[in-house]
Amino acid sequence: MNFWFEMKEGLFIALRALRANKIRTILTMLGIVIGITSVVLMTTAINGIDGAFQKGISALGSDVLYIDKFAWFGNVDFWEMRNRKNLIMDDYSRFKELAKLPKASAPVLRARKTLKYGENNVEGVILVGSTADFVATTNFTFELGRFFTRTEGQAARDVVVLGSEVAKNLFPRGDALDKTIKIGNHNFKVIGVLDEQGSFILGSFNPDNQVFLPIGSIFKYFLNRSRGSITINVRAQSPALVLDTKEEAIGIMRKIRGLKYDTTDDFAINQQEGLMNNYNSVVGVIQIAGLFITGLALFVGAIGIMNIMFVSVKERTKEIGLRKAIGARRRTILGQFILESSAICLFGGLVGLLLAVMLSMVIDQFLPTSVQYSAVIIAILISLITGVLAGFAPAYTAAKMDPVTALRYE
Amino acid sequence: MNIIKIEHIAKIYQLGTQEVKALADVSLKLDKNEYVAIMGPSGSGKSTLMNMLGCLDTPTSGIYEFTGKNVSEMTDNDLAKIRNQEIGFVFQTFNLLARSNALHNVELPLIYAGISAQERKERAEKALADVGLEDRIHHKPNELSGGQRQRVAIARALVTNPSIILADEPTGNLDSKTGEEIMGLFNELHEKGNTIILVTHEEYIAEHAVRIIRLRDGLVESDDVVRKRYIPIKNNLAKN
């Protein structure tokens, strides 16, 4: 008797048995449905958030260095960093003069203000003050208008470039160009609007939620020149030159800050890479914890199946005895019960998958999620494997029954 | 050649520290188209002997040859194959699958024989017709009378064209009138050339058989051919 014949007939017998106990089958299946739904939803959510973060972080650019008083990561003491000398505009001027490798560099100073246009206002927007060189340190593209010019920057004119999200909120009709908005109490003319750049994951650091203006204007209206410490954004010529550019920047900065050879740096050179590594390790933990917890749901479902299969084998002892008496081999009985539990799991898995896809469509309205083909295939495989594993022990009990004893069982 | 040849078989069960000799020393020979009743009080070993003959169990010692093949040393799979192809079982409690109709119940042994769905259906229908149930094919066991259920079970035993039909108290769960009908069916099968082994403790059932083997305490007490051939039931009753 060949394998496929046995599989086919075994499947018919299994389906017949499942149909005969509809409510029990459905309740057992429910455990797997819940398990698979949660596992798939969890992977989907993790993938979605991960994708958004990768996109957001890449907006920062892999070839950009950020010279700052504070290090983004690492175990440098916060108070030590806080007591460092501020980075000031003069530092930037000397850096720009000395550095040969960068493609572009620009000073950046941030402030937070409320923006207003007519009835519309956006609170707590990050103002990014810089020079005309800033745009060359980014990959910004413009939906409308342009970035401010060197002259506008040096003269600290009252002009502003809006991030796409800010522009949307202030000008729902998309007519921002040449309008005058209020930043704090001061009027600024909109000269440009950016295309959508990053992703929600960076929050207020997403360029979409920021506005860009000459650094002189920040000093003039919003921040005392002596208080703010600037960041110097440095873009390397190419990703391959990032390390060299970094080495050069360290040398120049030590010189500017007047550090002796035996003192440590009193500045930090930050990179997207550090952010990425940090993020990956955090997400890794969330991923493992999430899958473990949802995996538990699936495990409980599997135990439910094993339990019900044991009951089923016990109940059908006499039937098993009869089947053996009229010629079913051990292997045939084993296969029949494993097929039964696999069928429950497979159906449960498919229903769970369907549910997960529908739920992820709903969740997608609030959070980006994406169901991937790999998740679908893995879900189906996992439910099949669960079925086989959960069914094996009960099926083995059935297969090794002695026909004489089984036939006599009441 | 004998269909069944048993030489000095014994079956010993271990019950805790106690050894129970279900069969002490039994030797038998059965030929084709025999009609044998195995009788004996409970504890005589007749069930054990029947399990042995039906290849459901193997002896502790002794030799069992079934159509020339030594069964005593066969593996579980080989035994399953013999049961499937050579033996038709009829049980006291019918042992039909409650949720399947008559046709599917009769098809069951053919599934394990690896026969295609189409051929299965044809053969099962024929077997059901042979026991007079051609109009009950799609009925489930709970829609059939006791006698009809036993007929389905007999059809299931016949469908593989087995070498022997092994019936364990086939009338035990039936009223005497239905029991006589079923025995009539066995008599017919015997006339058609089937080999039948009946296990029973009822004298009037055993009297249908041509040869009666009586067991006591795991030994053959008597083994008599009571008549040359089966005598139709009415004459049989008249004689008494």
Kindly report the average pLDDT value of chain B.
90
What global shape of chain B is seen? globular
Please tell me how large the radius of gyration of chain B is: 18 Å
Given as residue ranges, the uncertain stretches of chain B (5+ residues, pLDDT < 50) are 235-240
Q: Label the structural class of chain A.
A: alpha+beta
What proportion of the residues of chain B is helical, as a percent range? 25-40%
CATH level 4 superfamily of chain B: P-loop containing nucleotide triphosphate hydrolases
The strand count of chain A comes to 10
Number of H/I helices of chain B: 8
Q: What is the total tally of β strands of chain B?
A: 10
Determine the N-to-C terminus distance of chain B.
35 Å
Helix content percent band of chain A: 40-55%
- Average pLDDT confidence of chain A is 88
Percent of residues of chain B in beta strands?
25-35%
**What is the class of chain B in the CATH system?**
Alpha Beta
Which H/E pattern describes the elements of chain B? EEEHEEHEHHHEHEHEEH
Q: Give the strand line-up of the largest sheet of chain B.
A: 6-7-8-3-9-10
Helix segment tally of chain A: 13
CATH topology of chain B: Rossmann fold
